[in-house]
């Protein structure tokens, strides 16, 4: 008998539960209605459209450049971007500098230094401005050391108002 009394004392009474539900319903009924916005919405800015975005990657290590181009193509596929072309030049671009070993004499003793630059190219098609900015920011943040990236965008524009289509009919030539 003692155990039952303790159980009833620890449980909340039925009247408290009913009062709680009633107060919740009353407070929910006093919600203020939504008011309409008096100002008209601002005109919507249209997103830019790019017909093609060309990425030119230049680096001093061909293995790093190849790995970075794979990374760029994988990132484009995750964002749903069409990669139309991806290629590399067959030969590296070589830049040679000839220096004298000694500044003052011995003109016949020269040293040649060579810098090789490797290139890779990627063409992306049909991009919106927001997708392009997100993609470019992502790949530029992950650009490895010894690599450079050049981006060329070809944007689609509206036909200007001063250009009109030709009229139907014969054109007279004087």
CATH class type of the domain at 49-92 and 118-154: Alpha Beta
Overall residue-averaged pLDDT value: 81
Helix content: 25-40%
What form results from the Cα inertia axes? elongated
Q: Could you characterize what this model shows?
A:
Residues 54-152 form the Small ribosomal subunit protein uS10 domain. This is Small ribosomal subunit protein uS10m. Belongs to the universal ribosomal protein uS10 family. It comes from Pararge aegeria aegeria. InterPro entries: Ribosomal_uS10_dom, Ribosomal_uS10_dom_sf, Ribosomal_uS10m. Helix content is 32%, strand content 32%. It has a domain at 49-92 and 118-154: Alpha-Beta Plaits (2-Layer Sandwich). Helix 3 packs antiparallel against helix 4 (129-141). Residues 1-27 have low confidence and may be disordered. The longest helix has 18 residues, at 62-79. The chain is α+β, with helices and mostly antiparallel strands and 174 residues long. Strands 1, 2, 3, 4 and 5 form a 5-stranded antiparallel β-sheet that branches. The chain is built from 4 helices and 5 strands, in the order ααβαβββαβ.
């Amino acid at each position: 008998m003692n155990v039952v009394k303790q159980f009833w004392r620890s449980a909340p009474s039925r009247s408290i539960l009913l009062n709680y539900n009633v107060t919740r319903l009353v407070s929910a009924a006093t919600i203020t209605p939504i008011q309409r916005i008096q100002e008209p919405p601002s005109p919507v800015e249209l997103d830019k459209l790019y017909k093609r975005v060309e990425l030119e990657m230049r680096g001093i290590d061909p293995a790093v450049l190849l790995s970075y181009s794979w990374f760029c193509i994988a990132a484009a596929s995750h964002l749903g971007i069409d990669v139309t072309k991806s290629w590399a030049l067959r030969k590296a671009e070589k830049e040679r500098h000839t220096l004298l070993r000694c500044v003052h004499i011995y003109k016949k003793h020269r040293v040649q230094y060579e810098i090789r630059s490797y290139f890779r190219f990627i063409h992306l098609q049909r991009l919106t401005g927001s997708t392009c900015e997100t993609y470019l920011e992502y790949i530029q943040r992950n650009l490895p050391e010894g690599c450079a990236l050049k981006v060329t965008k070809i944007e689609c524009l509206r036909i200007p108002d001063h250009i009109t289509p030709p009229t139907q009919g014969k054109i007279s030539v004087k």
